[in-house]
Amino acid sequence: MTLNRLVALGAYGEARTLYRRSVGGADETVRNASFERANTLQPFDWIIASEPTYSGIIETRTGWPHGNVLTIAGTEANDVARQLLLLVPGQYRLSADTANVRQERETRPLLTISCVSDNRAVMSAPFAAAGAKPAAMQGMFTVPANCPAQWIAIRNTPSFDPVDSDPWIDRIVVQRIGR
To answer: Is this model's pTM higher than 0.85 or not?
Structure first.
């Protein structure tokens, strides 16, 4: 609750300092990017939805050698997972692995990054189309100077096909590439 309260007050740096003291370890841009650890200290850890019409499910996929993935379930367009980032202004590259994603662009889940202060999207990209074999998803974006905190979110989109494909995502990486 303390971390959420500090974030609500715009005290992002103080919240991050308290989070780091609590969890220790390396400072990751996207924390738990491979969904291998428990998500206990929100909003810096993943907030994963568990609703009847949209949810995120952390699970191990047969044949995927990198451990757990986040599977997107449901048909309601909504955030199934999100976490708070504190990226400094500049240019970034995003990459992730996705699978079980339909070819039709309008039915693919989205990965978005938006400013906390005004909900302005700085990046919105559909998952890479892929069958059971994962595909690499990549994108570039710029964090403006007036955007000190951002939400990274995995968003479900309504499916026009009643057959559930169980799309999933793993190994989300955000790297700074320039000012």
So the answer is: yes
